[in-house]
């Protein structure tokens, strides 16, 4: 089993909307970054990557769990700076290319449609076309990490996670841990999210690394959901 080190980076979202976690996974052959934060936190992200020893030579891949601005906001800038490849699911591609977080989603409330472009900071220079499209079951061992991609729709159609052979799950926005581990409160398709949860119940998962909130044990999440049912 290939060894790796997980190095969380917590970044502020614009207008005091909260915090988002990105994760730098370091292996013997280089680094893989899961998500990139919003563009407003670019200076902080770059400083943290430098502090952790991540350079253009070591950053092998940026994996985007879905297309929202607080996950993709620095993807184009990282590719320009480091020459790294950007990977995401094809179903969220249009979000990145058009700068519209509502593409391929259900129609939002009008106020959300008006406010999100103002709040996101995802302008034309943040838009990008991914270099690599990943889907359920894809193996990441070619990037030095014994892990695979999981399709986890619900928050968006193209939401994905990454599960390592050691049982660490990086879940994007499927789960959150604001007060306690739970399904994310913002879901485009709640039925799809519940189906994603059922799929995960059959897998060997130890620890979960959400984009919002602290990491937690999978057993704790399942107990919380069972007690709330």
Description:
With about 230 residues, the protein is of the alpha/beta class. It has one domain (about 5-229): Metallo-beta-lactamase, Chain A, CATH 3.60.15. The chain has seven helices and 13 strands. It has helices at about 40-50, 70, 75-80, 95-100, 110-120, 190-200, 220-229; strands spanning about 5-10, 20-25, 30-35, 60-65, 85-90, 130-135, 145-150, 160-165, 170, 175, 180-185, 205-210, 215. The model has no long low-confidence stretch (mean pLDDT about 90).
The gist of it:
It contains 7 helices and 13 strands.
List keywords for this structure.
Metallo-beta-lactamase, Chain A; 5-stranded mixed sheet; alpha/beta; 13 strands; 6-stranded mixed sheet; 229 residues; 7 helices; globular
Structural class: alpha/beta
What is the tally of beta strands?
A: 13
Order of helices and strands: EEEHEHHEHHEEEEEEHEEH
β content, as a range? 25-35%
Mean pLDDT: 92
Low-confidence stretches: none
Percent range for helical residues? Answer: 25-40%
CATH architectural arrangement: 4-Layer Sandwich
């Amino acid at each position: 089993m290939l060894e790796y080190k997980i190095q969380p980076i917590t970044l502020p979202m614009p207008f005091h909307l909260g915090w988002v976690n990105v994760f730098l996974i370091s292996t013997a052959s280089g680094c893989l970054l899961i998500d990139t934060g919003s563009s407003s936190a670019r200076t902080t992200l770059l400083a943290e990557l430098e502090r952790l020893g991540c350079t253009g030579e070591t950053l092998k891949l940026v994996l985007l769990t879905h297309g929202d601005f607080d996950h993709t906001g620095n993807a184009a800038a990282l590719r320009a700076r480091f020459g790294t490849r950007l990977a995401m699911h094809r179903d969220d591609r249009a979000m990145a290319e058009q700068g519209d977080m509502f593409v391929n989603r259900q129609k939002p409330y009008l106020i959300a449609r008006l406010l999100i472009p103002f709040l996101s900071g995802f302008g034309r220079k943040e838009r990008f076309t991914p270099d690599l499209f990943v889907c359920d079951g894809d193996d990441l061992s070619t990037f030095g990490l014994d892990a695979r991609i999981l399709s986890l729709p619900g928050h968006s159609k193209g939401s994905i996670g990454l599960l390592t052979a050691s049982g660490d799950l990086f879940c994007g926005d499927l789960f959150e841990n604001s007060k306690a581990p739970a399904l994310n409160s913002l879901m485009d398709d709640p039925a799809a999210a519940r189906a994603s949860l059922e799929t995960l119940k059959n897998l060997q998962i130890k620890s979960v690394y959400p984009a919002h909130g602290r990491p937690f044990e999978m057993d704790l999440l399942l107990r919380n959901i069972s007690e709330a049912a």
